Amino acid sequence: MLFRAVRPIPAAVLLLAFAACVTNPATGRREFSLMSEAQEVELGKQFDAEVRREMGLYEDAELQRYVSDIGLRLAKASERPHLPWSFAVVDEPAINAFALPGGYIYLTRGILPFLDNETQLAGVLGHEIGHVTARHAAQRYTQQTTAGLGVTLLSIFVPEARPLQGITETALGVMFLRHGREDELEADRLGVEYTASTGWDPAGVGGMLRTLARLDEADGQRRGVPNWLSTHPAPADRVQQVQAYIAKTGGAAGAGRGATDRVEFLRRVDGLVFGDSPRQGIIRGNTFLHPDLRLSIAFPQGWEIQNSASQVVASAPEANQHMILQLVPNPSGSIEQVARGSMAQAGFQHVDGQRAEVNGLDAYVGTYRGQMQNLGTVATLAAHIVHDRTVYILAGLAPTNQFSPAERQFADSIRSFRELSRQEAADVRPNRVDIYTVRQGDTWESIAKRTADGLLKPSTLAIMNNYEPNQAPRPGDRIKIVVEG
Ligand SMILES: [Zn+2]
Fold first, then answer.
1. How far is the CA of 122 from the centre of ligand 1 (A)?
2. Ligand 1 center to residue 297 CA distance, Å?
3. How far is the CA of 232 from the centre of ligand 1 (A)?
4. Contact (Cβ atoms closer than 8 angstroms) between residue 171 and residue 6
5. pLDDT in tens, 254-268
C-alpha cells in the first residue's frame, strides 16, 4: 500500500491517438495503427514513470540486472531490436507480468517464486516482448483509455472496485489491457521464437503456462489467484498450442535442447520477499501493520483483508459489510472540516458526528449516508484520524439494513487504530523464499509445515516447484519454500 491518490490519465495522452497504416514485422500483418512508433515509445515512457512511482521497483540490484540481461537478449532477437527496451521487477506480491507500448516490460516479484528455472523466466519475458513487437497494446490503447477515464477518487467507495486485482483499480489499471485470445496465442508463439533463437529451451514458455494453469485450477477465484492468468484465456489450451509451435520451431533449438539454468535461477530467487512487504504494509491475522507509516489496525476477526496500492479493504465473509482504510489527499482546515468535506465530495451526507481521540490521535468520527453501486443506500461509520501530519480515513460501511449488526465491529476497529512504536515497526519482517533439499519421507504436507505460519498450502508448494499437486516431491530435489523473515 502506497497510499497514493488515484489520478485520471492526462488528457494529453488522448491526443496521441491518430491513425497510421503499417506492416508489422512481428506479425506480418498490415495494420491500422493508432500511433506511430515514436508515440508508442513516448506513451510507454510516460506510464513507465507512473509504474515505478506507484508500484516501486523491487530493491535487489543483482536480481534486476539478471532479469534485465535476459530480457535484453530476447528483445535483441526480436523484430524490433531498436526499441528502448527496459525490464524491471516491481515490488508487488501478486503473480503478474505486463508490458507497456514501446518496450517497457515488468514482472512482479510475486511471479518469480512460481517459475521453476531460467527458461521459464525467459518464457514470460518472451511472451511480454511478443505483445510489444506485435503492438497489441498500441492497437488497443485508445479504447481502453477512454473507458478508464472514469476512474476517480470517488471509486474508493465502490466496493465493486475492491482491490482484488491489486493496482488494476487505480488509474494504472487502464494500462493492463485485457488481450484477446488471438493476441495471447500470438504472444506465446513469439515467446517460443525468441527463447528458441536465443538458446533457451523454448519449452520454458509451455512450462510457465502449465504452472499458471495448475494454479488456476487449484485456487479458483480465491485471494492470491494470479492476475496474469486471469487476464489471459484458457491456459490449458495455450499449453497445447505452445507444444505445436515448439514442434514447428524444431531445428535450431527444439524442446529439451536449449538451456534451462535451474541452479542459477534458484540462487537468484533465494531470499526473495514473498507476500506483503513492510514497505507496503503487512497483514498478520486480522491486523494490518504498516511499519513505514507506523500504524496498526485490527479489523474484525475472520474478515478478509485486501491490501492494494491505494487502499486497504476488509470484508465480512458472508455479509455485505466492508471496512476501508485510505489516505485523504491534500487535507486542509480542521479535522472536522476535512472529514465532512471529503465525505461530501464522495457523495455522502453527514448524519452526525463528533471530535474524538483515538489512542491519543486527533480524530473526527461521524455517520453518513450515501448511494453505492451494487449496494444501494449505505450507511457508514467513518473516522478521519490525524497521524504523523497525515489524515487517514477508516470507514465501515454496509447497506442500511446490514449496518446495525456491524456497527460495533466498525467502532472496535476504529478504536484499534494506533501508532506503532519504533520497536514494533522494526519487528515487522517479510516472509522470504528459501531453498530446501527434499529428504527421504518428505511430503508436500510435511514441507508445508516448515513454511511461514502455514502460509502455503501443500498443493501451492507443489505447483510452485513445477510438480502436479498429487505428485510426491523427489528426495534430493532442491525446491523453493517460504520462511518467516
Ligand atoms: Zn499476454
1. 14
2. 37
3. 6
4. yes
5. 555 667 789 999 999
